[in-house]
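fyi for ur records
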Amino acid sequence: MSQQTVTQNGKSWAVVSVLKETTDDRQLEGIAPEVSKIIDEWHSKGKFILSGPFDDNKTALTIFHGSEDEVRKFYEQHKKATSNILDTYVYQWDALPVLFLL
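which gave:
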């Protein structure tokens, strides 16, 4: 499936993750391989994904495009890997298609 096909058939989603107050650096390093694996899996399927931290080093944003079933799967994988140290929220992001025009 091409990336163009995925973009036309899905919606844009934003996943916001915030470190819990009790999280330490060791715990954060412990989830990094699993989170990287999840993101790499989405890249390998031709999904658009952008992920990175904010300047506060406590909050991160992941953006991707997919169906509601795909967002549920992504959220479940992400939550399973990170729920002990991150609070995670998913939002549909209608602004992303505008960014493709810029």
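Helices lie at 3-9, 25-44, 68-82, 96-101. thats all i got for now
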